[in-house]
Amino acid sequence: MDCCDTPGLMPVSEAITTLLENTTPLTETEVVSLVNAQNRIAAQDICSPLNVPPFANSAMDGYALRTSDLTESNTLTLAGKSFAGVPFEGEWPKGSCIRIMTGAEVPEGADAVIMQEQTTVQGDQITFTASAQPQQNIRPIGDDVKAGDVVIPKGTLLTPREVPMLATLGIADVTVIRRPKVAFFSTGDELRQVGETLGKGEIYDSNRYTIRAMLEKMHCEAIDLGVVPDCPEKLRETFLSAASQADVIVTSGGVSVGEADYTKDILDQEGEVGFWKIAIKPGKPFAFGNVNNSLFCGLPGNPVSVLVTLHVLVQPLLAKLAGHTQWQPAIKLKAKAETRFKKVPGRADYQRAIYRTDENGNLLVSTTGNQGSGAFSSLSLANCFAVLEQDRSHVEVGETVTIEPFNAVLN
């Protein structure tokens, strides 16, 4: 049997496919002002209401002229000026030129602009030291965008690249898809809030901070429901509360073998949930389904497992839910291992690593050390995952490794 067919373990790609097949994009929209449009998803194709530029303008500081005038003499008389926002007006005699600045409207009849560095000036006499080609240094109407062009397709995340474009077009308000609402909480009697004093056997809950930070980077509305003790009544109450106000429920803890009894019983009654064992490390235990009308993603309890499963499995689900049709997984590159990576075949291993570029432009990668699912310090040192394939074993120095540089969600 191939180790990729490890009994009872679902391959990562199959898990993602199942998650996406069971996710329907949101359709509710809202109108926001352009100043509030960044990091929102365009709900419809955005078309240009005008030409950009709306008039022919100069690409240089120089002189606008009729090229036919240069056939008789390379010296022309200055007839006026055209500045940005203050175009030339009036008669433009034959045998003359117009002083023009970058971005200024090209006078009607001009078919070239010669840059000022290719002239000599004596009073109002301008001598041109270079020839001109028709339309030289002139930006025509609609050179960048034509009226009616789709400038931003539906499903695009509006970033500092798109928002200025909308401003250029004079668009003040944008129709966007509403943000996904994600309710999240941690489970466990051993968990305490940051700032509290720890008792014997207790630990601080870091998972909610991971989940909130990543959800906000994914442009979701994060609803923090706190820490829920291992109490069936309280757990049921929290699940129902979460389902009443969120599109997605995300939990950490309570989905490992032997820990899921309360969660499983409640979810069997209130929804439809499957408990999976995924061929991923860290993060093998995972639950997915629905509670009433909300999707449910149950993450493991270990801190690094939470981050990895949220990054690898839940992130594409939330992108589809948000209507972000342009979303792409983090880029994968090839790098040479500078250190040994320990690995047992059977699960895709997302190991914390640091990549760098050597003096020849080659990508190199090394481990950050302890790869335990509770060792968050090695994650804080990393700038990428070394993604070791499911059927791979130990990686020796010099071997090629697939790396996944952290994307915007983890940076």
From TrEMBL:
Residues 183-320 form the MoaB/Mog domain. It comes from the Bacteria. The keyword Transferase applies. InterPro entries: MoaB/Mog-like_dom_sf (IPR036425), MoaB/Mog_dom (IPR001453), MoCF_biosynth_CS (IPR008284), MoeA-like (IPR038987), MoeA_C_domain_IV (IPR005111), MoeA_C_domain_IV_sf (IPR036688), MoeA_linker/N (IPR005110), MoeA_linker/N_sf (IPR036135). Keywords: Magnesium, Metal-binding, Molybdenum, Molybdenum cofactor biosynthesis, Transferase. It catalyses: adenylyl-molybdopterin + molybdate = Mo-molybdopterin + AMP + H(+). It is an enzyme of class 2 (transferase). GO terms for cellular component: cytosol. GO terms for biological process: Mo-molybdopterin cofactor biosynthetic process. Pathway: Cofactor biosynthesis; molybdopterin biosynthesis. Its EC number is 2.10.1.1. Its cofactor is Mg(2+). GO terms for molecular function: metal ion binding; molybdopterin molybdotransferase activity. Catalyzes the insertion of molybdate into adenylated molybdopterin with the concomitant release of AMP. Belongs to the MoeA family. This is Molybdopterin molybdenumtransferase.
